[in-house]
Description:
The protein is of the alpha/beta class. It has 15 helices and 18 strands. It binds arginine.
Amino acid sequence: MQNIFVSSEVGTLRRLIIHSPDSGLGKVVPSKAQDWLFEDIVHLQTMRRDEYDYYLKILLYFLDKEKVQGKLKEIDADTSRDFYKPEKEKYFKSDKVIEFESLLADILHMPEVRTELTAAVCAIEECSFQFQKELAKLSVIDLAKVLITGTMPSNKMLFPPIPNLIFTRDIGIVVNDHLLLNKPAKYARTRESLLAKYIFFNHPVFANLRGKIIEITEDENHFLLAEEEQEGRLNTLEGGDVMMVAPNHLLIGVSERTTVEAARQAIDLLFAKKVVSKITIIKIPQKRDYMHIDTIFTQIKCNVWVLLGSLGRVQEEAEKQQTWEQLGQKPGYETLIIKQFINKPDGVKIKDFANLEDLLGSVTRDDLNCYDEIKFIYSGNNQFPYGAREQWTDSCNLLALKAGVAIGYDRNDHTAQAFRNAGFKTINAIELLEKFESNELSPETLRDTIIMLPSAELSRARGGSHCMSLPILRDNAI
Length: 478
Ligand SMILES: NC(=[NH2+])NCCC[C@H](N)C(=O)O
């Protein structure tokens, strides 16, 4: 049975990996917030109870209904939140909405993996030998927690937390029946990818992936470079920059996090294995606002995309501006460079796209064979200055649960209006769950709806629901 397969962004979602905010997130301090890629410190309880738990309940309703249907009153009344804690009996334990921490605990039951992984984590975190011995005494459940949170059951912090693990999108991407592992650009995300690597290579759930995991490495000449030359030249690639838009077509962003060398290596490896026949590189400005391509656009259904207008159709404007630039005026816009590589029997052909809309339109028509009128929804309804404001809080980072039904943040009011103008309904996550429970609505019958997740705390971590998901199984979109 095919249990790992993703060939689009909008086919009905069947299985995914998530990670609920752990106690490490509550240990982010102001002096480390930026280093740990947070814009602020977050209130953990609010983030869990009033925000992320709703995300989970919605996912369960869509992917594994019997875990929640008719039980929400009871679940919500339990102040201990045992339903959400993998070590508790009442835990929802789903093989569709899969918690990273449970996968980690499972592989730590294998003695060899436990020894290797503990040693590897201690090595990268420069743990003392003494602490490494203490880790050996922990139960599997406690060890999994320490490897994620960095803190021992005694409350001693052995190494820093990995608060960005809630953004499971970035650890790897399923490309048809293969998996492209990340190689993080930021030190704060190194331990996440180490843990992920051990899970994908060892967990029985991923047995079908053996021989199909693609890893990005350094070119051997890299090791011979002097340190100052090496700087900034590592091959790095993060999942938020990789988007599987159609069975034949993968998008890769070259960004603050993903280097052109890594993108090139991914193209060579994926073409050699014939996993896809078309890969488009989208080079976006290297800035914090747009760390990955999924922060500037995502797909809602075959003919609908949400994107940041200031990076859309700018090319024509840019060409007109050229004269003024030649006369010395500074460019007042940002441009994208879009190059498409097509693997043909007689060699790789390259095609240019002038702007994002042209590329996304071509995905809709040429790759998904969808001829419905293409709709672009712009962040902030393309009204100054809401486009930029709402993009910052992930207005362009939505997760499609099925074609036309996606989950995003509730705080992006102008973008929500743009969705309504385009014929979508918007509904608050809490209200939707009530309507599911009362059978007024159901995941199966919902159409063209954007689910609005409470997000005051979540958005401070600088990622949206697209980032908080690693889909491993979707139905085909076509
Ligand atoms: N796929 C994404 N856009 N992920 C967002 C990750 C956010 C996280 N704080 C970081 O900076 O790494």
